[in-house]
Design a protein that fits this description.
about 450 residues, alpha/beta, FAD/NAD(P)-binding domain, 2 domains, seven-stranded mixed sheet, five-stranded parallel sheet, about 20% strand, MSMEG_0569 family flavin-dependent oxidoreductase, FAD/NAD-bd_sf, Auxin_biosynth/cation_transpt, oxidoreductase, CHP04046_FMN-dependent
Length: about 450
């Protein structure tokens, strides 16, 4: 469909699960809109994941407005290409007004309250805008990487595909969020010697007392808790995801067991001096902390089982199979034969194209359930935007439904004001014009 030169009631930027969910609700409300996707539907799952990647959340949690996983393995974990296909089928199920291969390079708001979107296909305007581009924009590689030897191959987790992509020899993986642990496992299973810089990310058991841990937590209502129920919302939003895997039907990721099998675990990466890297002395504390979180989740499940009178098999608690003998230390990359470094250090947000003052000092959009202080501008698909599932298939529908109600209400107010103005009895000055003047 054509984009340049047109005006829409709503422009949705981003055609992933968040943007498509938003489109579904706007379609239900017969709201004129367009969805602008920089690549093509499913691009992130198809192009920015490694070959053995699969979801950590079970397939039954893949549910979007008007559409849900209907395959024969609800308790399994879809690999990346299947996730991309799931999204493509979702889009085909309701044929959203989607424009693919077009990037929004600038978003501004005029004094008259209209949003202008400069795109690679020309200029378009909208009364309201939903930013559904997620939080994972620019690979975050620490500046310390510049100090490593020039001959060392370095890739970010978003660029890693498989062990054969890297030169022969040991590999240093930095970071133990979900990506770092799963990539370290991928290399380890391929027979590569792995050095892993372990951070403070928590872990969770894949299964406990006869069920997937996430199934227990879902039944317990954990994923329905709003961010306002937590004492420190900012801290919750910045939490690292628990590491586990859906590979081979799903299992725990036990870094201690990897160590027994020959993986070298280190503390957090601290410094680089030529071919020598140094690590903090926090390895034991980080492993203990991850285990404590996993045990805390099990404690909550135990309490729920007891209170609800559920019959579930008993299960012994995890016993550490390995304990580090030393803390801190250095690694001579050349002497160890390390040929590559994988930076599993996350992503930075990049909202520089949004020229509207709705960000805090860290560049995070200030919002209340996705509604910003700028009338007509919304965010969707952010981690913990409202619940744990906000940035995932499991909970984005609830956020999209909420925002669609706000968008529809704003349209009704605008229509009422315009009718009053045409009748010669304006009820009030447009509040959005006043906001822009104050900004």
């Amino acid at each position: 469909m054509s984009l340049a030169g047109g005006h829409r009631a709503v422009a949705v930027v981003g055609g992933g699960q968040a943007g498509l969910s938003m489109s579904w609700y706007l379609r239900q409300r017969a709201v004129d809109h367009v969805v602008i996707e920089r690549e093509r539907v499913g691009h992130e799952w198809r192009e920015r994941r490694w070959d053995s990647f699969c979801l950590v959340t079970p397939n039954w949690q893949c549910r979007l407005p008007g559409y849900a996983y209907a395959g024969d393995d609800p308790d399994g974990f879809m690999p990346g290409p299947e996730v991309a296909g799931f999204l493509e089928k979702y889009a085909a199920s309701f044929d959203p007004p989607l424009v693919e291969g077009v990037e929004v390079t600038r978003l501004r708001r005029t004094a008259g309250g209209v949003f202008e979107l400069v795109t690679t296909a020309g200029l378009t305007t909208a009364d309201q805008v939903v930013v559904a581009t997620g939080p994972y924009h620019v690979p975050a590689v620490p500046r310390i990487a510049e100090r490593l030897p020039t001959g060392l191959v370095q890739v970010h987790s978003s660029q890693y595909r498989n062990p054969a992509q890297l030169p022969e020899g040991p590999v240093l993986v930095v970071g133990t969020g979900q990506s770092g642990c799963q990539i370290a496992e991928d290399l380890h299973l391929a027979g590569r010697r792995v050095h892993l810089a372990v951070g403070s990310a928590p872990r969770a058991a894949r299964r406990y007392r006869g069920r997937d841990t996430l199934a227990w937590l879902d039944e317990m209502g954990h994923y329905d808790r709003g961010i306002d129920e937590f004492a420190d919302a900012d801290a919750v939003r910045l939490r690292a995801n628990h590491y586990m895997t859906g590979r081979d039907g799903g299992r725990d990721i036990d870094l201690r067991a990897f160590a027994v099998q020959g993986m070298r675990l280190h503390g957090r990466l601290r410094g680089v001096d030529g071919a020598t890297v140094s690590f903090d002395g926090d390895l034991a504390a980080n492993l203990d902390g991850a285990d404590a979180v996993a045990d805390g989740i099990k404690d909550a499940i135990d309490r729920y089982i007891d209170q609800a009178g559920i019959v579930a098999p008993a299960e012994a608690r995890y016993e550490p199979v390995w304990v580090p003998e030393t803390t801190g230390g250095v690694l001579d990359l050349a002497a160890a034969g390390v040929s590559a470094v994988v930076w599993a250090t996350g992503f930075h947000r990049d909202h520089r194209w949004i020229e509207v003052p709705v960000f805090d000092g860290r560049g995070y959009p200030t919002h209340e359930r996705g509604v910003t202080g700028c009338p007509g501008l919304y965010f969707l698909g952010l981690p913990w935007q409202w619940t744990w599932g906000s940035g995932r298939f499991a909970g984005v529908a609830r956020d999209a439904a909420y925002l669609s109600e706000r968008i529809a209400a704003a349209r009704r107010r605008r229509f009422t004001d315009e009718v009053s103005w045409l009748a010669g009895t304006p009820t009030e000055t447009y509040p959005d014009v006043e906001w822009w003047a104050a900004a």
